[in-house]
Amino acid sequence: MRRSLPLLTWLQRRVRASEAAFILIAIAIGAAAGLLSVVQGAMARTMQHILFRLPGDSRLSAAPSLSPAVLLALPIGGLVLAGFSALVRARKRRLVDAVEANALHGGRMSLGDSLVVSGQTILSNGFGASVGLEAAYAQIGSAFASIIGKALRLRRADLRHLVGAGAGAAIGAAFGAPLAGAFYAFEIVIGAYTPSALAPVAAAALSGALVAQIAGAQPYLIDVVTGSMVETHHYLAYAGLGALCALVGIALMQAVALVESGSRKLPTPDWLRPAIGGALLMPIAWFSPQVLSAGHGALHVDLALGAPIAFIGAIFLAKSCASIISLGFGFRGGLFFASLFLGTLLGHLFADGLAMLAGRTVVDPRNAALVGMAALSVAVIGGPMTMAMLVLEATHSFSLTGAVIAASLVSTTLVRELFGYSFSTWRLHLRGEAVKSARDVGWLRSLTAGQMMRREGATAPAEMSIAEFRRRFPLGSTSRVILTDEHGRYAGIAVPPMAFPETLDPASPVARIAIMGDVSLTPEMNVVEVMRSFDMTGADELAVLQPDGSILGLVSEKYVRRRYAEEMEKAQRALFGEG
Q1: Residues 98, 411: Cα–Cα separation, whole Å
Q2: 81-90, 262-271, 346-355, 408-417: which has the minimum mean pLDDT?
């Protein structure tokens, strides 16, 4: 034990001082994240094979049909999920994912909470609910990175980058697409393309994908043959598809929130919600098993066979309903792969619809399926370059990737303009968090009025006469005096020069010249809220009060803006790796 402590201290210093050492740590974390993704995927698939009696290596969503007796696994799974959640609910705190951790907590995550998220997701997916495992992959990968980073006492920026590297490696391993995993880390988990994070994130994603390949895992890479060459005029059609995907993505996210809100109002115990959701899924799954799980098998089947438009439309509606019900009734998981699957169906419908209107083929349905896959996923998950790299690694077609980028940019622009959130940040918004990306805003919340105030300051009772105030606070003695009422509560601020005009009655109370009596700050207000208060009031200083109205101190606008500028400069230096 004594020998390990100096070794850990040496390693902490080495990683903090050396970029090469930090990259090596990222590679090790990427390998672990890739292996953990393989294990989690194997656990969920094993459950599906046992519960739904699947033959060989077949996937649940590719099954031709399932009997009603087998589909009873869905409500049973809801009860099992409720039981598991009840066992771990003693921790009573909110579970934090990688996006929230990087946005608000400087990359700090709990391994125990992340194991709960992973367990809930594996149970939900393993019992057939229409959710993906990607959330579990990213959660465990990023949590493992956070634990190692905290042990090494990494700086805030480095810890955030390592958390992004862990999540990106997990996604890269799951899809066999390291480029997509790296961009997932930058766009979804870190929230910015940071030069200092480029090497460690890329190395971790490559390491994760390589370990998954060595382990013999079957990646989710969409192995398809593209259609005809994408021509310049096709970009206009694909831009329209991107706009359609944006609208569908917004509707899908809002529908999940609406169903979740409605399900919580049912006259049944909250723990019964997943079982009710599982029962509602049964008739949809009996119609087509393609709606179950994330949809990997169904996506491959539909892309390979080229199903008719009526069937595609029916599956699109059924899968949308299944995903909305699953998430709205309490199953744990994400919409990553579900949005990919729905996007391929929407792309097919778009291409076939154009052909019916024009009387001829306008865009190749296979290309449109891939463009729709990326554009809808961008609308729901975010990350236009992530999806562009996924398509590039799947098809090796640069011309199609260009069309994907165009449609994805249209999709993400419309979502930001009309909605403003991705699926993960929308769920944070519903919980009361004003977070729109993983960009680090946690330091803004830690810089509060209570930290920036100065406690010393002259005080005087508000009923004191002007004459007495002039005697106690002559010109030049102080710039501000805090006034209090007979109960010791805040009553405003008096500026001494305002008490000296000859027109004032010396016998009148000093409360007559008080300013900002109805404006104050609380110690919990962050620096942005404090600056907003200064902008609205035009004050130079504001009082910080306790809930009972007693005075804690004063905050000056000049000091607040200086501290904000210092923290912004520090964040900018961290962005470019300048320490």
Answers
A1: 24
A2: 81-90
Confidence of residue 27 (pLDDT cuts 50, 70, 90): very high
* Sheet of strand 458-461: strand arrangement: 458-461, 481-484, 490-494
Q: What dotted CATH number matches 4-214?
A: 1.10.3080.10
pLDDT digits (tens, 9 = 90+) for 524-555: 888 888 888 888 888 888 888 988 888 888 88
**Does the reported pTM lie above 0.90?**
no
Which residues are within 8 A (CB) of 552 and not within 5 positions of it... i.e. 6 or more apart? 450, 453, 455, 523, 543, 544, 545, 546
pLDDT at 240: 95
Bridge partners (DSSP) of residue 526 are 448
Instruction: CATH 1.10.3080.10 in the chain: give the residue spans.
Output: 4-214, 234-429
Report the distance separating Cα 160 and Cα 99, nearest Å: 10
Cβ contact 102:438 at 8 Å: yes
Helices (H) and strands (E) in the chain, counts: 24, 5
How far apart CA 228 and CA 237 sit, in angstroms, is 15
| Lowest-confidence region among 61-65, 102-106, 347-351, 378-382 | 102-106
- Give me the half-sphere count of Cα atoms (radius 13 Å) on the Cβ side of residue 167: 34
How far apart are alpha carbons 440 and 160 in whole angstroms?
A: 9
**521 bridge partner residues:** 544
Cβ(493)–Cβ(515) below 8 Å: yes
Cα–Cα distance measured from residue 25 to residue 51, given in angstroms and rounded to the nearest whole number: 39
- CATH number for the domain running over 443-570: 3.10.580.10
Cα(347)–Cα(459) distance, integer angstroms: 69
User: Is residue 1 predicted with pLDDT exceeding 50?
Assistant: no
**How far is residue 359's CA from residue 545's CA, in Å, rounded to a whole number?**
71
Q: How far is CA 558 from CA 205, 530, 542, in A?
A: 45, 12, 11
Q: Start-end ranges of CATH 3.10.580.10 in the chain? A: 443-570
Q: How far out from the chain centre does Cα 155 lie?
A: 22
What is the rounded distance in angstroms from the CA atom of residue 374 to the CA atom of residue 370? 6
Is the CB of residue 401 less than 8 Å from the CB of residue 152? no
Residue 352: which residues within 8 A CB-CB, separation 6 or more? 309, 312, 365
Separation of alpha carbons 349 and 344, rounded Å: 9
Q: How many angstroms separate the CA atoms of 331 and 131, rounded?
A: 8
d(CA 223, CA 209): 16
CATH 1.10.3080.10 correct for 234-429: yes
Predicted pLDDT at 437: 66
DSSP state of 293: S
Q: Is 383 helix (H, G, I), strand (E, B) or coil?
A: coil
Return the ∠ at Cα 177 (arms to 137 and 323), rounded to 5°: 50
The yes-or-no verdict on residue 106 having pLDDT over 60 is yes
**CB contact at 8 A, 76 and 181:** no
* CB atoms inside a 10 Å sphere around CB 198: 14
Separation between Cα atoms, residue 289 and residue 287, nearest integer Å: 7
